[in-house]
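ESCALATION

Customer reports they have been waiting on this structure for their group meeting. Please prioritize. Original submission:
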Amino acid sequence: MTDAPPTHDYDRVSYPTMAHPQTFVDGLAAKGVLRGMAVADPSRARVLELGCGDGFNLAAMAVLHPGATYVGIDYAADAVARGRALLGELGLGQVQLEARDIRNLGRLVELGPFDYIVAHGVFSWVPPDVRQALLTALARLLAPQGVAFVSYLALPGAYQREAARTLVRFHTRATADPGEKIQQARALLDLVARGSTADNVYTRMIAGELELIRSHTDEAFFHDELSDVSYPLLFTEFLEQADRHELEFLSEAEYVMPVGQYLSPVGLEALRPLQQNRILLEQYLDFIEGRRFRQTLLVRRGAPGPTDAAHLARLRLNLRARPVGPGGPLADPQPDTYQGAGRGQALARSPVDKAVMRALAAQPGRAQGLPEILAAARAALAAEGITPDPQGEAAAGEFLCRAYLPGLIEARLGALPFTLDPPARPVAHPLARYLERRGAASLFTYGGRFVEVEGALGRHLLQLLDGTRDRAALVAALRAFLAEQHQAGAGAGLPAADDPDLPAQLERSLAGLAAMTFIAADPQSKA
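Update from on-call: job pushed to the front of the queue and completed.
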């Protein structure tokens, strides 16, 4: 029995199906561990998502940790109905979705407490009473050592977004049809960006916003920039509201230690006195870098201790960045450079930092424990006649904490969910197969990304990877598929059904899918 809310904009325009890896409990748990918390094991945790949409995000978590339990609530009854159909098709009975208003917790109090709570894309897009209800829900439902994720629009960076939003909201104020509203809003932004020959701060700002919005789907644009509510606020203002509910800051979802990787030498020197005041440091980083969106982790007041690199011993680390160029001798004054996604970059300068990063780089696709990493680093140092220094190892731990950033280093309590070496009976991500059956261009991977898989043969191969077929059975199934395609006149660009090179092509395709992290590391639990 649920208090199903009335129909509204999210039923008129469905929010796009999405998964948000930054909300996954592995990362939330790791942040808690690094601050000395006794967080719940993600494989057996109780997880709540407020504003879950169609439940795809929870489904992605459930594939990774089928032994955990998940509850999602959303105001949009249509989204919840779609999500229930998805979960039923995939057999994810450990995920429960309800159409419910956050202001009415109802039996959620009985279902709690929850070890991890996620509220992504909700706080800044709902009225004041719903925002307060969300924080109240965290205060009532979060376990004593639980971790909550809340994202919101951050000032001052979001002022730029608000300027563009003001224009499109005014321009479409009398337009009721969502499709027409989206079209008119995009047309106005294009006009404002290109309609003037002036080159000033305002025209450049609008042009920049237009470039960002062009990458948004129409559905996301409608619910984000065209939404009735938009509530950006300062990081410190958000924490003041959280504090009134006896919640405190743990870290950001993207990092455990503040990183001013875009600061100039002047900025670094100016902010140095704030190193002992984490909250003010974060706020002034927002001022200097113009941050517009935050993904903040909250815990109960008094739950976390200080960030301590010694806690890395409880985690496993995986290098996601790529080394730039061959590394020279460890004692070389030139740093080793590791390039992550976007502008993310790590520079290993000391011999110990270099040895640690090279130990990680030597084991791609594996999450290693700190003792294993340090043992390999000591061996590398000894091979070059460098005596390992305990203080240097402690400093390397600090370096790893600072490099624990999206696309650089991943930290988790357990092993990676994917493998780079396809097993005898490979299993592709169930959600990738689900999306492929619906003709989606981009398919979800164990690495937490949506990746395009081109070609009918490769996409069909994904459907075959359900753990029931060995290599011989896969080749036979591919030959049958190719024969059908050629017989139907749809075989252009496909190999012949009796192509003798097909087994070798299969191996290359499996290796490619594994490199894109589509293949489960543990086929027994991921089918």
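Sent to customer with the following note: Residues 158-223 form one domain.
Escalation resolved.
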